[in-house]
Design goal:
The protein has helices spanning about 20-30, 50-70; strands at about 1-10, 35-40, 45-50, 75-79. By secondary structure, the chain is an alpha+beta fold. The longest helix has 17 residues, at about 50-70. The chain has a 4-stranded antiparallel beta sheet. The radius of gyration is 12 Å and the shape is globular. α1 packs across α2. The chain has 2 helices and 4 strands, in the order βαββαβ. β2 and β3 (about 45-50) form a beta hairpin. The mean pLDDT is about 80. The chain is about 35% helix and about 35% strand.
Length: about 80
């Protein structure tokens, strides 16, 4: 089992401190990936899969979901 934790960090001027919109966009985008388990935590989203390609794909999908909404973001991953 491969485990990673990802976090979406918005870049640029924003109003307020909530990141709920960005988190929801990223989580919703990856939650449909087959054979991938995603769990929200207070500090990020933990993802698990038996396949490294699925982990990397989830990171890319989360980043693109936030980016396509017009929000600039950096997506960091660690395992």
């Amino acid at each position: 089992m491969i485990t990673a934790e990802i976090s979406v960090l918005p870049v640029g001027i924003r109003s307020g401190t909530s990141m709920s919109k960005e988190i929801a966009l990223a989580f919703d985008a990856i939650s449909g990936i087959r054979d991938l388990k995603a769990t929200l935590t207070p500090l990020g989203t933990q993802i698990q899969s038996n396949n490294m390609v699925d982990i990397l794909n989830a990171i890319n999908i989360a980043h693109e979901a936030v980016k396509s909404s017009g929000i600039q973001s950096n997506l960091y991953s660690a395992h």
